[in-house]
Design goal:
The protein is 36% helix and 23% strand. The chain is an alpha/beta fold and 609 residues long. Helix 13 packs antiparallel against helix 14. The structure holds 2-deoxy-2-amino glucitol-6-phosphate. 2-deoxy-2-amino glucitol-6-phosphate (AGP) binds next to helix 9.
Length: 609
C-alpha cells in the first residue's frame, strides 16, 4: 500500500525520485522519504505528502545519480518522520525502502536483539534492514546471499529496494507478493511499484516473480533466483501513454477518469468483439472451456466485488449458470466447497490486491480453473490465473475506481453473453441484439456526461451537509446501488448504505427522518413498481428522494429530484446508472473541499491483508 521508486543512471536521481513518488502517491500519502548516494548516503524523510518532502529538501544540493524513494501508507507505526522510509540498519551499512507487511517481525526483533541490534522506529521494515545487515556480516557472501537468506527467513509480502554502503553503485531489489517493475531506460535503470512512476522515462520493463531478486547497475540489471543463480528475464513494452497518467486539464483524476469511460469502453469492446462475434481466444478461454463450466464463483474486494454482484444476476438470468459471489477476505479462509467444473473468477483493477491474490491461489489449490478480470497488465493476479481478460481502462490513478469498474462490468457482460450462447441459452439473434445494444452503451454514457453533469453538480451542492445517505433498488438496481454507496463513502466521508429496497421495512426504515437523503435506483421494468412503493414509504417518513432512472419509468410522483438516463437493455443499466452515482459522489466531495483523488485512510491497491 506504499509506493517505492529507484534510479541508477547518468542523471541526478532526486528529481526522478520525487517525480516518480508523486505519480505513486495514490498508493499511500502519510509520509515519504528518499536516500541519495553521493559521497555518502543522504536520507531525507518527512511526515505528510510528497509536497512536504519537496519543501523539506528545498534547494539542498543532492548531486547523486543513484537513489531510492518511498511514499507511505502506514501499517506498522503511526505516520511520523521516524517511521517514514528509507530505513537503515544500526550502522547504516544497509538502507532500504519497502512496500508490504512483514508478518513475523516481532519474532525477528527478538532474534536481532539477541545479536545486540536496537530499533529506532515501530516499523516492520527497519527489522528487515537489520536482518539483511545481520546475514551480510555473518556470512560475508555479499548482497545476494544476505538478501536471499532474508527472503527465506521473513514471512509476509514485500517489494524491497536496498542500497549497501559497500556497493554504492548498485541498487538491489527483491519481491514477494508486492508489485515491482524494473525499467530499462536510455539514461539508466529504474524501479517502481507501478508503471506511472517511470512511464515518462521508459516503456521497457521487466517483471520479476515472487522470491526473485535483482541488481540494478547504471545501464543494466542482473536477475537472481533464491539459490543465488543468475536467471534471464524478458523485456516487455508498456502500451499505455504518458498522457493517461496526467490530469490533462481536469481538476482531479477522478473526474478525468469518469469522462474517459466512453472511450475506454469502446476500446474494451473492440478488443473482444470482431465482426459481431465475441473472441476470447487470445486468453485461451475457448468455447470448449466455456462448455465445461457448470457453475461460477466470483471473488473480489470493494468495487470489484460489486461488479461481481451485478454479473451474478446476469450470468444466472442469461446463461442459467448458478453463480456465487464472495468477498475475497472471507473466501480465502472459509475453505470454500468448489464443484468440479466450477470456474472461479477473480476481479481486480490492480491485480495486486492481497486478499484477491490469496483467493486465486486458494481456488487453484482446490483444483478449480481460474479466470482473472484485471486492468494492470503483468500484475500478479493476471500472471497466476489460468485465463485472463484484461479490461483496457488504462492507468487509473484516482483511489476511487470509476473507468476500471465500468470496463470490468463490460468485459463480464461479454463473458456472460458468450457463455449463454455456448450453453445454448440464447440464439444467434438474441446474441447479435445484445451485442448491438452493448455497442451503444459508450455513446449513451457520453450523452449523460454531456447533458447531466451540470445539473448533478448543482443538486449535490445541497447535500454536502448530510450525515447519512441510503441507496435503494431491487435486482440489478440494488447491485449497482452498492457501488454508488461505496463511492459516496470513499470520497465524501458521508455514512452511506445500500439496501435491497424490499429489506428496508425490516428495520432500517427506522433511520429515515426529515431530509434523509435516499437515492432510488429504478431501471428494471419487471419490478420498478415495487421499488416506487418502497420510495413512497420512505418519503412519507421525511426522506428526500433522488431518483436515477430511464425516461420510461414514471418517478415524478415520488422523486424530489430525478436524474434521467437513456434507455438500454435491462442487463446493461448498471453501466449507465453508475455514471450519475459516480458524479454525485465526486461533486459532494468537491463541495466539501476534500482531497478527491486521495481520500483519507485509503489506498489504490490494498496489497496487505
Ligand atoms: C474502489 O474505489 C476502491 N479503490 C476499492 O474498493 C477497490 O475496489 C478494492 O480495493 C479492490 O481493488 P482491486 O480492484 O484493485 O482489486
Amino acid at each position: 500500500m506504499c509506493g517505492i521508486v529507484g534510479y541508477n543512471g547518468k542523471n541526478k536521481a532526486v528529481d526522478i525520485l520525487l517525480n516518480g513518488l508523486s505519480k505513486l502517491e495514490y498508493r499511500g500519502y502519510d509520509s515519504a522519504g528518499i536516500a541519495i548516494v553521493d559521497k555518502d548516503i543522504e536520507i531525507i524523510k518527512s511526515k505528510g505528502k510528497i509536497a512536504d518532502l519537496k519543501e523539506k529538501i528545498g534547494d539542498k544540493k543532492l548531486e547523486g545519480t543513484i537513489g531510492i524513494g518511498h511514499t507511505r501508507w502506514a501499517t506498522h507505526g503511526e505516520p511520523s518522520e521516524a517511521n517514514a522510509h528509507p530505513h537503515t540498519s544500526n550502522d547504516g551499512s544497509v538502507t532500504l525502502v519497502h512496500n508490504g507487511i512483514i508478518e513475523n517481525y516481532q519474532e525477528l526483533i527478538l532474534k536481532l536483539k539477541r545479536h545486540d541490534y536496537t530499533l529506532y522506529s515501530e516499523t516492520d521494515t527497519e527489522v528487515v534492514a537489520n536482518l539483511i545487515d545481520y546475514y551480510y556480516k555473518k556470512y560475508k557472501m555479499g548482497p545476494i546471499d544476505a538478501i536471499n537468506r532474508t527472503m527465506v527467513r521473513v514471512r509476509g509480502s514485500y517489494a524491497l529496494a536496498v542500497i549497501f554502503k559497500d556497493y554504492p553503485d548498485e541498487i538491489w531489489v527483491a519481491r514477494k507478493d508486492s508489485p515491482l517493475i524494473i525499467g530499462k531506460g536510455t539514461d539508466g535503470m529504474y524501479l517502481a511499484s507501478d508503471v506511472p512512476a517511470i512511464l515518462e522515462y521508459t516503456r521497457n520493463v521487466y517483471y520479476i516473480d515472487n522470491l526473485e531478486a535483482a541488481c540494478l547497475k547504471k545501464d543494466d540489471v542482473i536477475f537472481y533466483d533464491l539459490n543465488g543463480d543468475e536467471i534471464e528475464k524478458e523485456l516487455k513494452t508498456i502500451e499505455w501513454d504518458i498522457a493517461s497518467s496526467e490530469k490533462e486539464g481536469y481538476e482531479h483524476f477522478m473526474i478525468k477518469e469518469i469522462h474517459e469511460q466512453p472511450d475506454v469502453l469502446k476500446k474494451a469492446i473492440s478488443a473482444y468483439v470482431k465482426d459481431n462475434t465475441i473472441d476470447f481466444t487470445e486468453s485461451l478461454l475457448t468455447s470448449d472451456v466455456l462448455k465445461g463450466i457448470d457453475s461460477v464463483y466470483i471473488v473480489a474486494c470493494g468495487s470489484s466485488y460489486h461488479v461481481g454482484i451485478c454479473i451474478q444476476y446476469i450470468i444466472e438470468d442469461l446463461a442459467k449458470i448458478p453463480t456465487r459471489v464472495e468477498v475475497a477476505s472471507e473466501f480465502r479462509y472459509k475453505k470454500p466447497i468448489l464443484s468440479k467444473n466450477e470456474l472461479v473468477i477473480i476481479i481486480s483493477q490492480s491485480g495486486e490486491t492481497a486478499d484477491s491474490l490469496a483467493a486465486l491461489r486458494e481456488a487453484k489449490e482446490l483444483g478449480s480453473k481460474t479466470l482473472a478480470i484485471v486492468n494492470v497488465v503483468g500484475s500478479s493476479i493476471a500472471r497466476e490465473a489460468d485465463y485472463v481478460l484484461y479490461t483496457y481502462a488504462g492507468p487509473e490513478i484516482a483511489v476511487a475506481t470509476t473507468k476500471a469498474f465500468s470496463t470490468q462490468l463490460l468485459v463480464l457482460y461479454l463473458f456472460s453473453i458468450e457463455l449463454a450462447k455456448t450453453k445454448k441459452q440464447i440464439n444467434e439473434e438474441t446474441y447479435i441484439e445484445l451485442l448491438n445494444e452493448l455497442k451503444e452503451v459508450p455513446d449513451k454514457i457520453k450523452y449523460i456526461l454531456d447533458n447531466e453533469v451540470k445539473r448533478i453538480q448543482k443538486i449535490t451542492s445541497e447535500f454536502s451537509h448530510v450525515h447519512d445517505a441510503f441507496y435503494i433498488g431491487r435486482g440489478l438496481d440494488y447491485a449497482i446501488s452498492l457501488e454508488g454507496s461505496l463511492k459516496l463513502k470513499e470520497v465524501s466521508y458521508i455514512h452511506s448504505e445500500a439496501y435491497a429496497a424490499g429489506e428496508l421495512k425490516h428495520g432500517t426504515i427506522s433511520l429515515i427522518e426529515d431530509n434523509t437523503l435516499v437515492v432510488g435506483v429504478i431501471s428494471q421494468k419487471e419490478i420498478y413498481e415495487k421499488t416506487i412503493s418502497n420510495l413512497v414509504e420512505v418519503k412519507s417518513r421525511g426522506g428526500y428522494i433522488l431518483t436515477v432512472s430511464p425516461e420510461s419509468i414514471p418517478v415524478d410522483n415520488v422523486s424530489n429530484y430525478k436524474i434521467t438516463i437513456p434507455e438500454t437493455n435491462k442487463y446493461f443499466y448498471p453501466s449507465l446508472i453508475v455514471i450519475p452515482l459516480q458524479l454525485i459522489s465526486y461533486y459532494i466531495s468537491v463541495s466539501k473541499g476534500l482531497d478527491v483523488d486521495k481520500p483519507r485512510n485509503l489506498a489504490k491497491s490494498v496489497t496487505v491483508e
